[in-house]
Structure formats: structure tokens, C-alpha cells
Amino acid sequence: MIKKWSMSYPAVNGTEQRRAYVYLPTMYEAQPERRFPVLYMFDGQNVFFNEDATYGKSWGVADYLDYTDTPLIVAAIECNAGVNNERLVEYSPYRFDDPTYGHFDGKGQATMSWFIHRFKPLIDQNFRTLPDRANTFIGGSSMGGLMSLYALLQYNDTYSRAAALSPSIWVAPDKLSGLVGRAKLAPGTVLYMDYGSREMGNHEGIRRQFSALSGKLMTRGIHLTSRIVPGGTHSEVSWEKQLPFVFHTLLYEVEE
């Protein structure tokens, strides 16, 4: 079951209405006393419905979770669809320059503040969640993957597990590496992170950066699943194929 509605969001160009989505697991109504962990996701328009997806193809997350009877709530909010690449502003923790699109003042910290102080309380108040850190996860791809990685490191007191698919680690790699080194991480922090082999050439040195980042994350004691996806591309079609790996990692030994 997916609930979908419009809600007010403090975007970089002023307050606007965004589509919000919540997936409820197959056993949600049949087990009215049961509470569930929550996965928060970026780019909500691409998570469930092809008709809402930016490029006409979603991840198909609801279909996968229904098929596997996975006891998990998924809450997502759509991205900024502004014509001036405002999504890159909202989904970057850092200022950065792109040779094609120009300069961006990263507002990722403000985005995460909204997720933690507005979106999460709304979900916890209206659905039967397990609101504690151990049962609160975050995930996304591309810039959403970068934000998921950032959230796990910077807000580890809120999120215990994350999935970062094809994360845009080329954005301010030195600052990201610095955050990995100084982040206050609770024992048992879990991360799934991947990159498609066919997208490794999209940015110079990305294979080297991905390898170095994976190594540094492991030295911090993070329980890391790091993969190079054979034939993987930077697309929802490819990310959908990774869902078994993603959810196996996120829910491994999560107490029901």
C-alpha cells in the first residue's frame, strides 16, 4: 500500500508543494499492534511509480517489498524539479563547481534538518513506526546517494543504516573524506554503497575515489557492503536491479 499526498517544503526558491510518499508493508493492516522500521528516501518521484518518475522508470520499490513481504515502511519526498538545477543545491552538503552547470551553494544541511525535524516526526506521528535510531535508515542514488552517505556520517545519532547507490562522491571529495575521518559513529553503523562499472568513467578518477572512500569507511568500523555492479549504469533500471543487495544489507539482523 502506498499513500501519496502533497506537503509544504521550504525549497531553495521559497516554500513549494512537494509530493510525499509512504509505503506500508503487506502485513501493516493485518497486524495492527506491530511497529516497523523506516527507510527514508530521496527523489521520491522515482521510488514507486513509473508515471511519476523523472525519466519514466521508477525503482519499483513497492513491487519488490510486496513480493518479498518485507516488514519495512518507506517514506520519500520528491526532489526539487527547478529548471536551474536546484536539485543539485538541495542535495549537496557542500559548495561545489561543475564545468558544465556552474557554481552551486550546497544546502544539504538545511535539507537534512527538514528530514529530521519535520519529515521524520510527521511519519512517526501518523504511522506505526519504530522511531529509534536502530530502526531509522536513509537511502538514495546519485546526489541522493551522496546525501544518504552524508546523513549517515553527520547525523549518525538519527540514522543507523544507509544505502548510497552511485553516490556523487565527485562533489567536494576532500570535504567528504574529512567528514568520514571525524564523524562520531556509533558501533554497528551499516552502509550499502555501490557504483556501476559502466558509469565509472563519468568522472575522472571515480574508481580510485570510490576505492579510497570504501577503505576509509572500513577503517572507521562501519559495516560496509561496497560493490562495483557489473554492467551497472547511472539509471533507475540499474538501481532497481540492486534492490535485493540493498535490502539484505539494510535489514540484516534487524530485530523484528
Automatic annotation (TrEMBL):
It holds the Pfam family Esterase. It comes from Faecalibacterium tardum. InterPro entries: AB_hydrolase_fold, Esterase-like, Mycobacterial_A85_antigen. This is Alpha/beta hydrolase-fold protein. One of its GO terms (molecular function) is hydrolase activity. Gene3D superfamilies: alpha/beta hydrolase (3.40.50.1820). Keywords: Hydrolase.
